[in-house]
Amino acid sequence: MNTSELQKVKQRYNIVGNCDELNHALDVALQVAPTDLSVLIVGESGVGKEIIPRVIHDNSPRRREQYLAINCGSIPEGTIDSELFGHEKGSFTGAIGESEGYFGITDKGTIFLDEVGELPLATQARLLRVLETGEYIRVGGTQIRKTNVRIVAATNVNMRKAVSEGKFREDLYYRLNTIPIQMPPLRNRGNDILLLFRLFAMQMAEKYRIPKIILTDEAKQIMLQYKWPGNVRQLKNITEQMSILSEKREIDTETLLQYIPRDIESTQLATTNKPGQHSYESEREILYKILYELRGNVSDLKRDMNTLRKQLDEARGLAGAAGFQNPTFQDTEAAKFPMVQSGHHEPSNEIAEAEAEEIKDLEPETLNLNDLGRLMVEKALERNGGNRKKAAQELGISDRTLYRRINQYGLDKQKEK
Ligand SMILES: Nc1ncnc2c1ncn2[C@@H]1O[C@H](COP(=O)(O)OP(=O)(O)OP(=O)(O)O)[C@@H](O)[C@H]1O
Ligand SMILES: [Mg+2]
Question: Which residue from 13, 18, 47 has its CB within 8 A of the most atoms of ligand 1, so it is best to mutate?
């Protein structure tokens, strides 16, 4: 592949980076695009796997046909077969009409199966058949249908392990993996880290209409050495946080280290306050303090739920409910049950837990800082019965700043007492 062709693709899809592994991944994508071969994109979370299937489809003879991206992990097990392969009228409760299913709709096009490792085993069997013969049967049907769909799949789980654990069919894995494309983790991309930082800093400056942040030479070294467990997504989020929250536009080592989590201990803010007294250096620190407190509460909740789940499972086992299984027992279901654990569930923790509950569905890395700021102000007002003076004191900010925040977050309808 010549460099100018690669350059064009990068420009078209806004892909930044020039390391060999990324270039190789794009190169393979362009080479297999004109064929009908199945492609499996593998790589850690946040490395940019979702760009590849689009590149493949747009550079294939199918480019004018349908392209459908499906997140296999987000479709409930009970409906996934009917969503993918369609169903006949009356085939299950609620199946009022017939449905064509994604494989019918996308005939002649491309389907991107994201998080393919999450597919239930029964669906894997149907998928294998489509891949091998182009044939499928709708749920509740008998008629064999034909479809001509190109499959591109992606996963961030170790598929070999999933196969050895019996969670993924070996024959399907080999069939999907005809052409593997490996997306490199960010930590292996060298100088691309700084190029990506520049891209995101520019995007944030435009998005929020603020001056662009830049890095000092020492800060650049830290960026290059950091392990980036959340990869490009994490770099993007951290650049966004710094763009909004840092008072300085030139990010030095000290500032950067406040945003890069090295380990749990070092991310906790040191509190030097006397009991009952709040003194924060800046609003940014308040935001972070609250963020870490909420994170802590979320972790506590998750731990409690796990304990609760174990207790329930044990209880079920003791009750002799043979064959009873609840593998998809979710946090949300656990939340319906009262907390039965003793320990740190003191009444004083209830407010914090309720607050954590509100944000527990949000991943910390995608936590919207605007939401966080609003939540913080809202809760302070609630705790102080709507008294703005007291709320401002508690937050350690001036009355005027609080008024500004209330307007900004549209909380002005809240009655002052
Ligand atoms: N080379 C790149 N240039 C510009 N942006 C990138 C690049 N790689 C990734 N991104 C951006 O990083 C974010 C994460 O990428 P993406 O959603 O594709 O990750 P992923 O590999 O699918 O992760 P997951 O396995 O968690 O779904 C996206 O906003 C994407 O646009
Ligand atoms: Mg993804």
Answer: 47
